[in-house]
Specification:
- The complex is a heterodimer of chains A (about 210) and B (about 170).
- Chain A has about 210 residues and is an alpha+beta fold.
- Chain A has two domains: about 50 residues; about 120 residues, no CATH class.
- Chain A has five helices and seven strands.
- With about 170 residues, chain B is mainly alpha-helical.
- Helix content of chain B is about 75%, strand content about 0%.
- Chain B has nine helices and no strands.
- The chains are: A alpha+beta (about 210), B mainly alpha (about 170).
- Chains A and B meet through helix 1, helix 2 and strand 7 of A and helix 1, helix 2, helix 4, helix 5 and helix 6 of B.
Chain lengths: ~210, ~170
């Protein structure tokens, strides 16, 4: 059997595999993606303009509180800013033991991690789908996450136009484990920071090295 | 985007979809997952068709996009696991996916990189240089992976007795 025969054997073995998705569905999804990218560009432009205007106003204000307000809006999004709702990147709300997280822009992941930890969630947040090198999968990856630990608004893992929203139940994190959330920003290659992309999550051993990573 | 571009993309989809699906199926091993990934990759291709249509190998672009999308899908698996029964990663069901179970089993026993190289070389007809670019490796590495994969597949496909005679 020469290389060409082998190639033919492989191709023949897969000849019965056919794509069933209609072209119309692909075209429709592609149009939606393009529209979303354009709206992100528009939102990004507006946000940059708003931030620039706010910075100018804050810089010209005689009272230092103006600087504080800008800083809160851009670095601690969970504190409701009085400037503009569009600057609220994410919010965390705790009610009855559950923690609701809404993410519109994935900025300041460390701030999000600190806020979630303050609300009792043993968590590591990364701004990508790669978990920290210092973290090791809980039970070597042989586990099943309880279905109530993370309840997503969008189960496909893809962001909804208004952002991503999910509810965490910290009591569902097993003892000795911590939750990893990978929330990459999207908007590339335009460079616009937009709603997070596909979300990664998993359980990892709650070691000090992982918590500090 | 105009009607011309739409019909051009539709023709590309019609001509390339099965090859792309087969290449991704070889890599991921699950028919439905492969279909979802390839459909999403084609949708992304249509969303930026002006760039993709000028790509030297648009099929490779689709397959690479699907491969990359699989990374996140694979990691999302943990969250999705409660929805599915746990399966041994080495197992898959060829029945119903339209593939020859023996061929799929042989391909699935290859290491990931060798499997991806075979998918691109055999199913998309990419040459060594194109495959190297798509997978981000040196051409020499592609050649080595190809040679090892071919040797393993040959050993799988040819019964022991015939293999000795062939050698």
């Amino acid at each position: 059997m020469n290389d060409q025969d082998l190639k033919t054997a492989v191709r023949d073995g897969l000849a019965g595999v056919h794509m069933r998705t209609p072209a119309a569905d692909v075209l429709a999804r592609g149009r939606a993606l393009r529209a979303r990218r354009r709206s992100l560009l528009a939102v990004g432009t507006i946000s940059v303009a708003a931030a620039a205007v706010t910075s100018v106003l804050a810089a010209s204000a005689p009272h230092p509180a103006g600087h504080d307000a800008v800083a809160r809006a851009s670095t601690t999004p969970s504190v409701a800013p009085s400037i503009s709702a569009s600057l609220t990147a994410w919010s965390v709300t705790s009610t009855g033991g559950s923690v609701k997280v809404t993410i519109r822009q994935m900025i300041n992941p460390q701030g999000l991690q600190a806020k979630l930890r303050a609300d009792g969630v043993r968590v590591v947040v990364t701004p990508s789908l790669a978990w920290p090198a210092a973290c090791h999968e809980w039970r070597g990856g042989h586990y099943r996450m309880g279905s109530n630990l993370i309840r997503l608004q969008d189960r496909s893992g893809l962001p909804s136009p208004g952002g991503t929203e999910f509810v965490l139940d910290p009591s569902q994190i097993p003892s000795g484990a911590l939750l990893w959330l990978g929330l990459p920003p999207t908007g590339k290659p335009s460079g616009v920071v937009g709603p997070p992309g596909p979300m990664g999550s998993g359980l990892f051993a709650a070691t000090q090295a992982c918590l500090n990573s | 985007m105009g009607v011309t571009h739409e019909s051009e993309f539709a023709e590309f989809y019609q001509a390339a979809r099965d090859d792309c699906l087969r290449a991704v199926l070889v890599s991921v091993g699950d028919r439905n997952t492969a279909e979802d990934l390839v459909a999403e990759a084609f949708a992304r291709a249509w969303a930026r068709w002006r760039q993709v249509r000028r790509h030297p190998a648009p099929r490779a672009w689709v397959v690479t996009t699907a491969f990359n999308a699989n990374v996140s899908a694979w990691r999302r698996r943990r969250r999705e696991m409660p929805l599915f029964e746990h399966r041994d990663p080495g197992q898959f069901r060829a029945a119903g996916m339209g593939a020859d179970p023996d061929v799929m089993a042989a391909l699935r026993r290859l290491p990931d990189r060798q499997r991806q190289v075979i998918a691109l070389r055999f199913l998309l007809d990419l040459d060594t240089s194109q495959t190297a670019k798509v997978l981000g490796m040196a051409p020499g590495t592609v050649t080595a992976h190809t040679a090892r994969a071919i040797a393993r597949l040959r050993a799988e496909f040819i019964p022991q007795g015939q293999q000795e005679a062939w050698q």
